[in-house]
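Need the bound structure for 2-acetamido-2-deoxy-beta-D-glucopyranose, inputs here:
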Amino acid sequence: MGCNRSWLIFPLFVLLISPVHGLTGYDSESLDVLIHQYAMKVQAKKRTGTSLKVPLPANFSGMEVSVVRLRSGHFWERGVNFSSFYIPPRVTPFPFVKRLSIVYQNLGNWSTLYYRVPDYSLVAPVVGFMAYDASNSSASGNQALKFNVLGDPILIKFPNLATKGNPEILKCVELGPDGLVHFRNITNENTCITQGDGHFSVAVKNSGVDKNSRVWIWWVIGFGSAIFALVLLGVIGFTTL
Ligand SMILES: *[C@@H]1O[C@H](CO)[C@@H](O)[C@H](O)[C@H]1NC(C)=O
Ligand SMILES: *[C@@H]1O[C@H](CO)[C@@H](O)[C@H](O)[C@H]1NC(C)=O
Ligand SMILES: *[C@@H]1O[C@H](CO)[C@@H](O)[C@H](O)[C@H]1NC(C)=O
Ligand SMILES: *[C@@H]1O[C@H](CO)[C@@H](O)[C@H](O)[C@H]1NC(C)=O
Ligand SMILES: *[C@@H]1O[C@H](CO)[C@@H](O)[C@H](O)[C@H]1NC(C)=O
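Answer from helper R.:
Posting the output first, comments after.
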């Protein structure tokens, strides 16, 4: 009878592979590296000041990237605004550098391919910014920087949320590497706050109904298969007697 037990493993196997655990080929960290490379190429041609749009290859169409290079002193005194980010004065890069580049990205319709939050749905595109040492005008080998926020926090505005529910269920999400997620309350005016660089979006918790019905379906499939296997075992047992 020993080998027949393998029939019972099959429905268990089906139960374990639910769609929630699907792996994708979209790696957000290698995307950041690639975007940084394109941004540095654009910036190599210009000196400082204005925000520059970064053209990406056609197969990334739908993403929006820009880059701005600033003197740290100027950044400390005035802050900088770009797209949905408002960086106030009294923010300083560390380690300290003379000039820094800030790379902004909006993943648009690619957001949910690169980032997902278990049990939540994103209702805004993923936007992100990162800072790099730009002291040296030779573009390569730029070191990534962090921020020290000594005054007000950095604001991220999400003007066009794709929500169907009441605003109380909205959560700001900070999307770290390796699927790490930090939740924060959203303020009035659909604004999130942060003390540093990274990737951000807004999420709503999936309704329990959806989740339960999915679990339920897998139980039905699991039990169905188990009963089918048992019947088959019975048939095989009967016919081989
Ligand atoms: C787009 O093409 C580049 C090479 O030109 C490749 O490295 C990258 O992975 C492609 N991106 C996607 C999303 O297919
Ligand atoms: C995003 O939209 C652009 C057109 O605006 C399209 O070319 C691209 O294939 C879309 N990307 C995804 C992942 O759906
Ligand atoms: C950024 O925007 C805020 C609010 O609109 C404004 O008060 C501030 O002066 C702006 N900062 C810069 C550097 O443009
Ligand atoms: C800039 O980079 C070049 C070559 O990478 C190096 O020789 C030079 O010392 C660097 N300058 C500064 C100010 O770091
Ligand atoms: C976030 O919002 C919830 C409900 O609106 C509230 O109970 C909680 O105290 C808030 N958390 C913070 C850190 O403000």
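Comments: The chain has two domains: 28-206, 208-241. Helices lie at 6-16, 28-43, 72-78, 111-114, 208-239.
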